[in-house]
What does this fold into?
Amino acid sequence: MKMTKREYMAYVGDTMPKSPHAANLLRAFITGGLICCVGQGLANMFYYFNLSIDDASAATSVVLIGAASLLTGLDLYGAIGKFGGAGSLVPITGFANSIVSAALEFKSEGFVLGMCAKMFTLAGPVLVFGFSASVIYGLILFFSGVR
Amino acid sequence: MNNKTIVLRSTPGIIGAASFAGKKEGEGPLAAKFDVILDDAKYLEKTWEKAESKIQYDAYQTAVKKAELNEADIDCIISGDLLNQCIASTFAHRDSDTPYLGLYGACSTFAEGILIGALMVNAGYINHTAACVSSHFCTAERQFRTPLEYGAQRTPTAQWTVTGAGCAIIGTRRENAPFITAATIGAIKDGGITDANNMGAAMAPAAFETIYTHMKNTGTSPKDYDMIATGDLGHVGARLLRELFEMEGISLENRLFDCGCEIFDSNTQDTHAGGSGAACSAVVFCAHIVEEIKKRNLKRVLFAGTGALQSVLSVQQKESIPAICHLIELSV
It folds into this structure.
C-alpha cells in the first residue's frame, strides 16, 4: 500500500458513507416528542384524578417505565429505538430499555452474577451521573442556605 | 516485504464442504445453495453459545459425510470462532476423540484453517483435515456490542454477523475436487482505523497486501483469475480494496467477489455494509465457491479470508484495529 497510515485514515474519513443526520434529527424529534406528549397526557390524567403534582409525575414515570419494559420484553422497543435514535434513548423509556434488555440478555449467566450484575452495564453511567449531580445540587443548596 | 507464497506440489483438495446458515442468511441471495437453513436461531438449545457449538458440530458431521468419510478418518480438526477463548469450537468438539487444533483469526479463521490443513496434507503428515468455523449473530452481539433488545441505531458502515457454520474437509487429491495449488500467509496490517463499526475499512489494507503479494510472487494479474473472493470486507471494504488496487494501476474489474457483499441483499435485508463473522466467508465458500469450481464455472480462484483482530477491551482503550488476510489459490 502506497499510502501511509495517516493518509489512509484521512482517505477513509473522506469517503465513508455518512449517517443521515437531518433525517435522524427529525425522527428523534418526532419520537422523543411523542413520548413526552404521552407522558404529559398521563400526568394531566393523574392530576385530573386528584393526585398531587408530585404524585402525578411519579405515577407517570412508573407507567412509562412499565410500558417501555413491556415493549422491550415483547421485542418491540428495538424497532422504536432503530427509528427514533436519541428520541427514544434520552427519555426515561430509553433508560428502562437499557436495563431490561441487559437483564434479559444475561439471564443465561445466572440470576445473581448474570441478570442482576449485568443489568446496569448500559444504565450504570446514567446512575453514576444522576447520583453525582444530585449530590452536587444538594451541596449547593446546603451551602447557599436556600430552603 | 518478505511474505512468501507457498506452492503446494501435491495439490491437496477440498473433498467435502458443508454450510449451515441461519434464517436471515437463508432469506438472502444464496439461499438455495446452503446445505441446511436453520428455522430456530437457538437450534433447540438453552443458550446462544450452545446453539453455535451445535451448529458447528453438525456442519462438521455433514462435511465428513459429504466427503464420504467417517469421523475416524479425520486426522485433525482445525477450528475457531469469535467467542472469548473460542468456546463455540472447543465445546463443539469436546466429545470427539479426533486431534484438535484451535485457531483465532477472527473472520479470517476459515481461510487460515484451510491453509494450515492444506499444508499438513501437502506435506504428507496426515490424510484428512477438517477446517471448521462458526459465528452467531446473537453470541457476537452480546459479546462485542449491546443486548439484542436494546434499541439503538447502527451506522451505515456496520456489518451484520452471519449466523452459521462452515466446514471443509481437506484431503489428498481426488477427481473433481477443487485443488489448493498455492497459499500466501498474510502479515498483520493496521491502517489506523479505530471505529469498530467500520471493520471493512480496517481490513481492506490487509486484504490488499496479501492479494497484491500473492499476484506479485506468482507473476499473475487479476485477469488470470475467474474470481478473487474476499472474506467479509462488506460494501465499504470492498470498495476501498478496489481503490487501493486502482492506486497501483491494477483493476480488479468484475473479478472481485466479497462474501460479505454477496450473502445478504443490503437493499432489502437491512444489513447496512454487508455480512461479517467467521461463518460469513465459510458458508459462502462451502455453498457457492466450491460448487462453482466443481461445476467448472470457475477454473482459477483466489480465496482471501479477512479478519479484524480487535477485542472489546482494545476498542475501549482506543487502540486502532489490526487486521489480517490469508489467501489460498484454488483451481479445477
Q: What stands out?
A: The longest helix of chain B spans residues 199-218.
